[in-house]
Automatic annotation (TrEMBL):
Organism: Olleya sediminilitoris
Protein name as catalogued: Glycosyltransferase family 2 protein
Organism lineage: Bacteria, Pseudomonadati, Bacteroidota, Flavobacteriia, Flavobacteriales
SUPFAM superfamilies membership: Nucleotide-diphospho-sugar transferases
Signal sequence region: none
Alphabetic keyword roster: Cell membrane, Glycosyltransferase, Lipopolysaccharide biosynthesis, Membrane, Transferase, Transmembrane, Transmembrane helix
Length: 237
């Protein structure tokens, strides 16, 4: 199969969601505007996630997986997905499915002109505390990065793989993907997407992660921006 688009699905202790993930993503492959495959990245889950992932991959040729030796965090899982992608486009979605795969088509409609297209969760179905902490964290990040993005935490993105592979990931950098594309002189765009309540499993981030974590990561980003190397080859023999 000549795949054009890989969807990375980071997984950490999501055994209650994975059969639903299989159903939703398999349905999406039938309506996708690009020929699509799915790559699970199991971030060292301690439940039955890996057994389910292997069963899903054995019965669906569109599904592959990577299993980490130990838990390394969301940024590492996303980076591994980028590193192991072989298609021209890569995206990712969280395994809690609070966003829907069908909205990838909305993002893919703009990826020709842009290098990263990200969703913006409209009418979010989260708690007041979670919504407010995310708004504050996004405001802090925008002040530091000037990326103009309203919701970088939205777990629905499409990126040209050549740009994704050049992102020098560090812990927490998944919040800065648009800014890292802009450091490469890439173009970014945000599109409203649907948002749904979590129906199974537990959220992996609390108030500390959503506020203090992003603030500390902003300083790491500023250091990265100052040291970042960007070049274009004009000629080669």
């Amino acid at each position: 199969m000549n795949y054009q688009f890989t969807i990375v699905v980071p997984v950490y202790n999501e055994e209650d969601n994975l059969l639903r993930v299989e159903k939703e993503l398999l349905a999406y492959t039938k309506i996708a505007t690009k020929v699509t495959k799915i790559l699970f990245v199991n971030d060292g889950s301690k439940d039955k996630s890996q057994d389910l992932i292997e069963a899903i991959c054995s019965r669906n040729e569109q599904f592959d997986y990577i299993l980490f030796k130990e838990n390394r965090g969301l940024s590492a899982a996303i980076k591994a997905g980028f590193d192991y992608t072989t298609t021209e486009l890569v995206g990712y979605i969280d395994s809690d499915l609070q966003t829907t795969p069908e909205d990838f088509n909305l993002l893919l409609a703009h990826i020709g002109e842009f290098d990263l297209v990200t969703g913006v969760r409209s009418n979010r179905k989260d708690s007041f505390v979670k919504n407010m902490s995310s708004k504050i964290a996004n405001g802090i990040r925008r002040a530091f990065t000037k990326d103009g993005m309203d919701d970088t935490g939205c777990p629905l993105k499409v990126i040209k793989t050549v740009y994704a592979k050049r992102i020098p990931m560090f812990k927490g950098l998944h919040r800065f993907l648009p800014a890292m594309i802009m450091l490469q002189n890439g173009k970014t765009k945000q599109i409203p997407v649907q948002h749904f309540p979590r129906v199974a499993g537990e959220a992996k981030f609390g108030l500390w992660n959503r506020l203090l974590g992003p603030l500390m990561d902003c300083f790491a980003y500023l250091w990265m921006k100052k040291k970042y190397i960007n070049y274009e080859v004009a000629k080669q023999k």
